[in-house]
Amino acid sequence: MTSLKNKDFLKLLDFTPEEIAYLLELAAELKAKKKAGIPHALCQGKSIALIFEKTSTRTRCAFEVAGHDLGMGVTYLDPSGSQIGKKESIADTARVLSRMFDGIEYRGFGQSIVEELARYADVPVWNGLTNEFHPTQILADFLTIQEHCGGLKGKKLVYMGDARYNMGNSLMVGCAKMGMHFVACAPEKYFPDPALIGQCQAIAAQTGATLEFLTEPAAAVKNADVIYTDVWVSMGEPMEVWQERIHDLAPYQVNAQLMAQAGPQAVFMHCLPAFHDHKTTIGKEMGEAFGRDAMEVTDEVFESPQSIVFDEAENRMHTIKAVMAATLAG
Q1: What is the pLDDT of residues 141-179, one digit of tens each?
Q2: Is the peptide bond between 135 and the residue preceding it cis, with omega within 30 degrees of 0?
Q3: Residue 9 carries which DSSP code?
Q4: What are the tens digits of pLDDT across the range 28-72?
Q5: Which of 8, 43, 60, 137 is catalytic?
Q6: What is the pTM of this model?
Q7: What is the largest CA-CA distance in the chain?
Q8: Is 95 a catalytic residue?
Q9: Which of 58, 60, 107, 181 is catalytic?
């Protein structure tokens, strides 16, 4: 039987396909219990710390609700509520929090930070997002794909846009692990790091996965099961970056024409938030500045029956709950 008790959850590269499948199975089981109103306080009496150097709606809410459902106390430390790396080293923070909490979540900047936290902590550490990897999001994505497409193996997922950072990296790793067909579609300079591609190619050789890196959208999306995208520009980046990304990535926008080229079987996914209209401050500001109604996805696609983004968002909570239950309760 699979046991992940006391194991850190830092990146999917650290897990076998069997362990990932186990977490997805546990998440589905816990989701069914929540829907049926069956209590599942598997971690009664434990406490967890959530360190957020980057704020978030879905990740914070998912960890907090999942923690409460499991019977745990939850302490949230926002960017001003923790001295990590400022007045207190990462190593010292890990050792202090380990004396008070049963698990630690970190959402922030470099992968090296969460890895160092885990090295010095005596309790499980979970990655809520770093610049390089976003493993809890991928579990949520894969649970959602299982629910809508009937499984993972052999399914074709096309990631449209900038694949150099956490989402492109993590989807590529996850697809390689689970024997899926992963396609990154963007200009070549937006492809993932060659060293990581090499690691994933080696994994794919064992699992039967296929990895492709294409620049032509129509060819990339043909017969896709999932069309996936993310914002083109992260918060806080300067105006020049917006200009460059919009120029480079506009041909890779997910719109009705692209979904039609994929076929009626394709579902649309996005880790959110999405700039699909002008109903956000940044969406309005950048939309007006660059004369665009939408950025990475049109409102027509986002609101269409093919869009499963809110199932995906809900599944953040069920899969995060599974990670915490598996690593704390066993």
Answers
A1: 999 999 999 999 999 999 999 999 999 999 999 999 999
A2: no
A3: B
A4: 999 999 999 999 999 999 999 999 999 899 999 999 999 999 999
A5: 137
A6: 0.97
A7: 56
A8: no
A9: 107
**Mean pLDDT across the chain, nearest whole number?**
96
pLDDT at 61: 98
Our measurement of the distance from residue 80's CA atom to the centroid of its chain's CA atoms, rounded to an integer in Å, reads 24
Annotated catalytic residue: which of 60, 200, 271, 306?
271
Please give the average per-residue pLDDT across 223-234, as a whole number. Answer: 96
Q: Could you count the other beta carbons within 10 Å of the beta carbon of residue 4?
A: 20
Task: Look up 316 and say whether it is catalytic.
Answer: yes
225 is known as an active-site residue: no
Q: Give pLDDT, residue 84.
A: 78
Q: Which of 68, 69, 126, 71 is nearest to 97 (CA)?
A: 126
Phi, psi of 53 (to 5 degrees): -85, -20
23 Cβ contact list (under 8 Å, min separation 6): 4, 15, 139, 319, 322, 323, 326
14 given a catalytic annotation? no
**For residue 271, is pLDDT > 90?**
yes
Measured over the CA atoms of residue 162, residue 167, residue 170 and residue 172, the dihedral's sign is: negative
Residue 192 backbone dihedrals phi, psi, to 5 degrees:
-65, 165
- Assess contact for 17 and 179: CB atoms under 8 A: yes
Catalytic residue among 230, 245, 276, 306: 230
Whether the CA torsion 218, 220, 223, 229 is positive or negative: it is negative
- pLDDT value for 97: 97
Which of left, alpha, beta for 143 (phi over 0: left; psi -120 to 50: alpha)?
A: alpha
Strand partners, 226: 157, 267
Percent of the chain at pLDDT above 70?
99
Instruction: State the Cα–Cα distance between residues 104 and 117, nearest whole angstrom.
Output: 9
DSSP-derived 3-state class of residue 251: helix
Catalytic residue among 43, 58, 60, 134: 134
Active-site residue (options: 245, 270, 276, 316):
316
Residue 213 has pLDDT above 80, yes or no: yes
